[in-house]
Amino acid sequence: MGCGSSMDTQTNPVVTEVSSAMQPRQNGASGNVVEQYVRLDEQISKLEGTCPGPRMATAEAWVEHIHGKHEAMLGLDGMGVAPLREREWEAEEALPIPAYTMGGRQGDPIVANTPTKDLAQLAYNLGVIGDARKASMHEDFFANLSESALYLLSIRYYGELFEHTKVRLKTLAESYAELNELYVKQDGIIAYISGGTYMTRLEESIDEQLETARDTRDKLGSALEQWRICGLLLRAAANSSTQALKQWRQLGRIIDPKQKLQWALDCRSLLHASTISLEAAQLALPHVELKYMSHRQVLAVKHCNTYLITDIANKARYEHTSRVFTSYESNMSKTCTWLYETFNSTLRPDYDKAEETVCGLAKTLRDHREEVFSTVRK
To answer: Are 69 and 158 in contact, with CB atoms under 8 Å apart?
Structure first.
């Protein structure tokens, strides 16, 4: 009867319970039940506008996708690496690298057992921060350490993303449950007044048009959630890249080797967070090619990040890395801006138009029913 959205409600109204609960209020006040219908319909229309059902379905799919990605990384499929338990990677600075031995490095006990927090001391002892010759001698060794640490950091970031998406899903599920409760109450009122049948041909016609309009709006609402997820992740990627670039530029002016190394590690973490956010954004909106950002550029950033520690002492490499990071930060910002501009010029107007159509039909049906119901109740 037009009381539910295109997302199926989970409960059916119990007309006898609704009608008996209303009966005391109906005696001597025939307009009360009609006023209740109008108030409920207005509430429904407002809550429906947020598309909790379609958005929830999209969020559920996203949670499953991220969970699968996270589980695969924990299992380290195809990496020849022993599985990690969640408590073994709580924070990068406290991450022991035991159990993380990759391919050709399985026989290297230092790589296998060096915690990230000891990397700074090791690099300091070997003099790779201020001596280009020593840095060149040990670059592959430190690159292996960085790869291990960054992979573990990826697991941590995807774990955090998974927890964040669960919070979003819970919020949408609560809104959807609230909407279903309103549907049940409204259906009970309509059934109480009309016996569950259309009272006029006009009511039936408007209701059919409304359901069609709701279906269109809900599909757009589902897509809206995908773009929202992608947009938030791109914004996070852009912010992290900007912070990392500032860190990297300031690093060049630091004299103390230990401080310089710590800043380098912070920069590395920020850039890795940016590339992971970008990767997740692409997963969230797989059919949209993100402008200004190429796979080749991302690979260049990851390569620089892997060799970041030993490239500091080499002026030419430091400048090359600076150019790579600067270009990435600039394009990351452009990509983020482009996505929001594209959204605001395409999907947003379409959704707003669909929502306007739904609201107009809902009000027309509400006004018509108010008139008919009031006549019946007199």
So the answer is: yes
Locus of tokens 């950033």? 301
Answer positive or negative: Cα dihedral of 351, 354, 360, 364.
negative
Positive or negative torsion for Cα 220, 223, 229, 235: negative
Sequence-separated (6 or more) residues with CB below 8 Å from residue 198:
1, 204, 207
What is the C-alpha separation between 376 and 358, in angstroms, rounded?
A: 26
d(CA 232, CA 43): 29
Residue 288 is given by DSSP the state: S
CA–CA–CA angle 270, 272, 276 (5° rounding): 120
| pLDDT, average across residues 46-69 | 95
Q: Could you tell me the two tokens for 78?
A: 């195809």
Yes or no: say if 222 and 55 are a contact pair by the CB < 8 Å rule.
yes
Domain parsing of the chain, residue ranges: 15-377
359, 49 Cβ separation under 8 angstroms:
yes
In a 13 Å sphere around the CA of 303, the CA atoms on its Cβ side amount to 10
249 close to 322: Cβ distance less than 8 angstroms: yes
Convert the pLDDT of each residue in 312-354 to its tens digit.
Answer: 989 999 999 999 999 999 999 999 999 999 999 999 999 999 9
Among 24-38, 164-178, 235-249, 343-357, the range scoring the smallest mean pLDDT is 24-38
Would you put residue 256 in left (φ > 0), alpha (ψ -120 to 50) or beta? beta
Nearest by Cα to 228 from 160, 179, 285:
285
Report the first-to-last Cα separation within the chain, whole angstroms. Answer: 22
- Given pLDDT bands bounded at 50, 70 and 90, which one contains residue 305? very high
Amino acid identity of residue 332, one-letter, is M
Asked if residue 117 lies in contact with residue 93, where contact means CB atoms within 8 angstroms, the answer is yes
- Residue 364 clears pLDDT 80, i.e. is over it: yes
What is the Cα Rg of the chain in Å?
29
> H-helix or E-strand containing 243?
helix 201-251
What length is written for the chain?
A: 378
How far is Cα 377 from Cα 367, in angstroms, rounded to an integer?
15
For residue 31, the model assigns a pLDDT of: 58
Distance between CA atoms of 303 and 320, rounded to whole angstroms?
12
Residue type, 84: L
- Cα 229 off chain centre by: 4
